[in-house]
Amino acid sequence: MAVILVAEKPSAARNMASALGGRTGSYKGTVYEVASLRGHLYEFTQPHAMVDSSLADAYQKWDLSNLPWDPDDLTWKREPQKNVTDVIKTLRSALGRGDEIVIATDLDPSGEGDLLFWEAIDELGFHGEKFSRMEFTDESKASIQKAFEQRRPVKSMRAEGDYRKAMYRSQWDFLSMQFTRIATAMGRQSGQDLVLRQGRLKSAMVSLVGDQQKAYDAYVKRPFFQNRFRDENDVMYTNPDEPRCDHKGQVPQQYGPSAVVLDSKADRKTAPPKLLDLASLSSMLVGKGVKANLTLSTYQKMYENQVVSYPRTEDKTVTPEQFKDLAPLVDKIAAVVGVDAGLLTRRQPRSTHVKPQGAHGANRPGPKVPSSLDEVERKYGKAGRLIYEMLAKNYLAVLAEDYLYEQQRGHVSKYPNFVGIANVPRSPGWRAVFDPDAGDGSTDDENVSSRGLGQNAEPFIFEGANKRPEHPTMRWLMKQLEKRDVGTGATRTSTYSEVTNDKAKYPLLTEKGRKLRLARAGEMSWRLLPGTHIGDLGLTEKVYADMRDIAAGTATAEERLAVVADWVREDMATMAKNATSMRAELGLKKQVGPARAEGVWQAAPGGPKKVTFKKIWSGHEFDDDEVAKLLAGETISFVATSKMNKSFTATGALGVGDFKGRKFVGFQLEVLDRPTRWSGRTFTPAEVTSLLAGQSLEIDDFVSAQTGKTFGCKVSWDAKAKKIIPDFGSGDEPPRSWCQVTFTDMQRKDLAAGKTIQGTGFVSARGRTFDALISWKIEGGKKKIVPSFG
Predict the structure, then answer these.
(1) CB contact at 8 A, 653 and 611
(2) How high is the mean pLDDT of the chain?
(3) Is 477:205 a contact under the CB 8 Å cutoff?
(4) Nearest 5°: CA angle at 733, between 727 and 734?
(5) Range of the domain at 201
(6) Segment among 65-79, 252-266, 700-714 with least mean pLDDT
(7) Among the four 97, 208, 315, 660, which has the fewest Cβ within 10 Å?
(8) Strand partners of residue 230
(9) Domain total for the chain?
(10) What's the alpha-carbon Rg for the chain, to the nearest Å?
């Protein structure tokens, strides 16, 4: 039998194996084996699967009459995550070979590492075994070895405060789904078929962005005029008591030129900026055109190849061991990102950036240094290049000297109340390596002057104005969340990626360049949130305080979760009140009648049954006649709108659907077992026979649903997916049509032969008609129609 170390993820398992001498073996007389999770292997099931069958219907439906939930009804049942079957099988086998199981997951402040270990132990039924805990400051060889030798005995899952607090947070967030149901119900009562997602972090983002957007949009410029002085070095001298006037002509002309008196000189310095977390890094990259979801996915690939460090860290510093491990690679990293190694003269750890605490350490370059940024770009794209360059320069700045400057203070001789300050750079230090504000239009010091104070100052009338509130951006939002301690750098970034995903059905926020605004669902949420508990920015602080008490044993999760029911009741009342003003402000009307259709479904499985179902499907609202036909079991057809905002004819009937394991009654799109019609054209019986036989047909009279114009292409029938597959040209065979013009057989023959032909009457995606010379050739790695206008 052996000691089984359970690491949080494969990369951590590799580090442990490297430190101890292999995946299996003996370390100082103790036989061991390293096993691995892959993050959370399990997740909570849907609410209706956690309660007694007599309550399942109430917990499944989104009706407000079924809220609040009673936490005592919930079993907190879990189910495996997707694609973890092999991981679970391997873990179960390893645990069975041990006589001691070691918690070797991360030491997170939130207790997350303990939670994902214990939920696996709980689900696999290994309670009663001998347990211990490895407590390491980082994943360096020395830390792992020391933690293995000094394993702390663990009595049980419930005896661990880190598990209790993490489980409480997980349960709290699960219960917060009720707030999504409340907000969604208010939206539907206002005639909007949207899902308005709520949560501690999502709602905080919506509240912050909405409030800032309102302040920005409501800004009214109020100019003011005031006497000031300026010297020959462009240093400005101001008097805080000098009156401000509304008009330039109102400013009294009472000052004349005067000499400048230098009052003091003082040497000043600033240390390098703090190391980046994932939110700060992603915020900076958004300004360079890289969206948060691309940063997350690219960083993960780079981490798996050890080019950068672990992404989801909460650390803002590195440990002495991590600093020591990276030290031999510094010059090589500097060469890759074009930093002069001669600037990196402070090779000893800074106490501000290197501390004997943490786990993974702050985001930084990894142990595998690429040969060049071009190599990084080839492997990981432009986003990868930017990630590595920014992380590397940020880390290297810690090894550079402080930024030094001389601060000069002086006043206008004749009018001593007018004071000026000039900060004269003396040595750029770390600024020559990394400038965190480069390109964002901001500056740390508006008083920077390379020449210092001048000798003489001239009076002038300064024109200023009240400062406009900053337009919300990702960088602004992340700073606000960090200031209020809402979420971690990693969770802020992943949640931000989710709520700004323009491919999501109901995004809460939208990005245009750097600017951030509320999406339609976000705007409705923002108007529903004032005065609610879920919209309170102090909510996370309350949950964290509960977690501390639960970990210390001075409170239980059951006690602290009991308050959620009262909050749900109060938020229902508050959102109902807010919904009235929301409808008035957005020009909406309260839904007349139920937001969902209801009646007796004659064709229900097992016989007629009273049901309710959504009245809106893909942008189409069923009228009374359609509702009656659906309840009667009839098939109906109507024009619907796809997620890509394209119109199509939907045919189907009422049926039972499945969404994430939840059964529901609703309109079900008819899935045909044979091709009948596609793009406005009905297939002939002979064509249907050919398509079913697996043949491809070239047809020229399909009709575009968007433009109403005909087009041609080759089509085939996918029997497995039960849908028509169009082929607009591949290999050496040109398409049947292009830009709404159908080619003749001779034109296609010429194109296939490599000839350039003249085409007329093409229609662009924006609806503009144009003529062009076209050819069929390789561009961007594949053959396509290539126009030229020369």
Answers:
(1) no
(2) 89
(3) yes
(4) 75
(5) 175-218+471-586
(6) 700-714
(7) 660
(8) 236, 458
(9) 6
(10) 33
Q: Where are the beta strands (DSSP E) in 8-110?
A: 24-27, 30-36, 42-44, 78-80, 98-104
Q: Are residues 293 and 390 in the same domain?
A: yes
Do both 557 and 653 map to the same domain?
no
For 621, left (φ over 0), alpha (ψ -120 to 50), or beta? beta
CA separation for the pair 447, 439 (Å, rounded): 19
- What is the distance of C-alpha 196 from the center of its chain? 17
My answer on whether 730 and 784 are in the same domain is: yes
Q: What is the pLDDT of residue 751?
A: 85
In a domain, 46, yes or no: no
With a threshold of 0.70, does the pTM exceed it?
yes
Cα–Cα nearest to 348, from 309, 297, 399:
399
Give the tokens for residue 596.
């969902």
- Cα 12 to its chain centre, rounded Å, is 24
Residues 363 and 441 in one domain: no
Residue 63: inside a domain, yes or no? no
| Residues 6+ away with beta carbon under 8 Å from 161 | 111, 550, 551, 552, 553
Q: Do both 26 and 151 map to the same domain?
A: yes
CB 783, CB 777: distance < 8 Å: yes
CA distance 12 to 14: 5
Provide CB contacts within 8 A for 242, sequence distance 6+.
Answer: 226, 227, 228, 417, 418
**Which of 345, 348, 354 lies closest to 315 in space, CA to CA?**
354
Please give the DSSP secondary-structure letter assigned to residue 328: G
User: For residue 707, what is the DSSP state?
Assistant: T
Nearest of 587, 639, 595, 586 to residue 614 by alpha carbon:
595
Give the pair of three-digit tokens for residue 254: 């009472």
In a domain, 166, yes or no: no
Question: How does pLDDT run across 567-593, given as a tens digit for each residue?
Answer: 999 999 999 999 999 999 999 888 765
Q: Residue 337: how many CB atoms within 10 A of its CB? A: 22
**DSSP, residue by residue, 139-176:** SSHHHHHHHHHTPEEE--STT-HHHHHHHHHHHHHHHT
Among 430, 439, 429, 427, CA closest to 395? 430
Give a yes or no: residue 48 inside a domain: no
Whether residues 413 and 388 share a domain: the answer is: no
Per-residue burial over 494-530, b = 16 or more CB atoms within 10 Å of its CB, e = otherwise: bbbbbbbbeeeebbbbbbeebebbbbbbbbbbbbbbb
Q: Please give the pLDDT value at position 595.
A: 64
Q: Mean pLDDT throughout 671-675?
A: 77
Residues 663 and 684 in one domain: no
